[in-house]
Amino acid sequence: MVGVAGIRTTWMDALRGFGRNAYLLFIAAGVLGFVYWGITYLLTNLFVTRLGYGTDVVGNLNALFYLLHMALSVPAGALGGRLGARRSLIIGGMLAIAGWAVAPAASFLLYPSARITALVASRVVSAAGGALFIVNSGPALIGAVEPQAGTFAFAFNGTVVSLTTFLGSICGGFLPPLFSALTSKNLASSIPYAYSLWAGVLVLAPALLAIFFFRDAPRTAESAPDHAWGRAPWGIILVIAGVRFLRECGYGGVLNFFNVYLDSTIRLSTSLIGILVSMSSIASIVFTPLMPLVARRWGTGPTSLAGLLAMGASVLVIGFTRHWLSAAVGWAGMTAANTINETAMQVYILRIVAPQWRALMSGAANAATTLGLAFSSSAGGYLIGTLGYPALFGISAAFIFASSAAFTGHLAYMGRRRR
Asked: Is residue 190 part of a domain?
């Protein structure tokens, strides 16, 4: 059993040893958490509905983004291996910012065809930038720290993102009322949401500045673990991709429509939705720092599996009733479990392959992730219209439990292989 002093010493040693490059990546991740997972996630779907579109259009726009992201993930990994992490992150960040800046312009376009064109163009450009940035951020971080500090680095990164998401969600909830007062437009109009999204884009400047100061780690002859493949590990890449796809088919169904569910079914105000969504990040802030300590005892694979199972159970809680309290509890549990699963999984999949295959593994895993999100986004919009939200949440939980079963089989195989 690790005592409190041991926990503090271990974390303090890790924090002192991360280095300049790692902290620059933490800054960029924190700003992105505040803007993308906080403000943009909270308001984008509500913005589209205020333009007069239904959940089918919301789902298809999100699906387009995820499909493009999926298609570009493996090429983004290959390009990152050629350009280096720094240039890939800069180019990806600039494209993503440009894409996010286009969507709010739809509020000021007169013709419906021009509005939908702006929304589609926003998804296309931001998907290209997001793929290049996200695929190369994991390898960049794991290359910026010592091997023994990998779990701590990803846990700290996840905690920073959870904290800034918490702040961004609260901020995002109050931005539309603020711009409503400034523009004399009520909250049924899309214009307060457009200005709120543009305000978020302006906040992204520090993230891009941090990446400009980042420097690529020198290439070393780092050895992979004994159970890693020295040649292209296509077998394990396909298995991990399958696990990720099933996971996102379930997680994405909740992620893409939860704020619309609170808005249209539970009838909460935008500010209350922001508070409720933000409060869930507190659970991630509390539990994510424990991930390295649990992983040290169990390993990153079993820790990730535990997070998956907790995600599925939390989604069931969301679907049990139509009360805001059960929705809040389930969302908080799913968010915390997702952060633990995600941080442990990133370390796991990047450590079981040789360093030269990390970008490929990251790209393939990200492609499967976004394919699952695309499927759940497109199908979820139609599922809500025909069967309602309870069916969406029940099917989402089933997909997450299927992912858990597949990952359990993978871990059992890896255990036999090591023995």
From this structure: yes
> What's this model's pTM, rounded to 2 decimal places?
0.72
**What percentage of the chain carries pLDDT values higher than 70?**
93
Check which CATH number belongs to the domain holding 177 and give it.
Answer: 1.20.1250.20
In the predicted structure, residue 227 carries a pLDDT above the cut 70 = no
- Contacts with 140 (C-beta within 8 Å, 6 or more apart), sequence order: 25, 85, 86, 89, 214, 216
CA-to-CA distance for 127 and 141, rounded, in angstroms? 21
Between 314 and 12, the more confident residue is 314
- The full DSSP string for 141-188 is HHHSS-GGGHHHHHHHHHHHHHHHHHHHHHHHHHHHHHHHHHHT--TT
Measured distance CA(414)–CA(408) in Å, rounded: 10
Contact in structure between 309 and 338 (CB atoms under 8 Å) = no
Nearest-angstrom CA–CA distance, 156 and 16? 12
Q: Which residues 6+ apart lie within 8 Å of 138 measured at CB? A: 346, 350, 358, 362
- Count of structural domains within the chain: 1
How is residue 309 written in tokens?
């199972």
Query: Is residue 115 assigned to a domain?
Result: yes
Q: With respect to residue 57, please indicate whether it lies within any of the assigned structural domains.
A: yes
Domain span at residue 113 reads 13-216+226-414
pLDDT digits (tens, 9 = 90+) for 123-160: 999 989 988 888 888 888 887 887 777 778 888 888 88
Identify the bridge partners of residue 353 per DSSP, sorted by sequence position.
229
How many other CB atoms are there within 10 angstroms of residue 230's CB atom?
A: 11
Cα separation of 243 and 253, whole Å? 16
Burial of residue 224 (CB within 10 Å: 0-12, 13-18, 19+) is: middle
Query: b/e string for 59-95 if b means 16 or more Cβ within 10 A?
Result: bbbbbbbbbbbbbbbbebbebbbebbbbbbbbbbbbb
CB 25 within 8 A of CB 144: yes
Give the closest residue to 276 by CA, choosing from 315, 229, 224, 331: 331
Is-contact 352 303, C-beta < 8 A?
A: no
Q: Over 90: is that where the pLDDT of 244 sits?
A: yes
Measured CA to CA, the distance from residue 186 to residue 374 in angstroms comes to: 32
Q: Is residue 8 part of a domain?
A: no
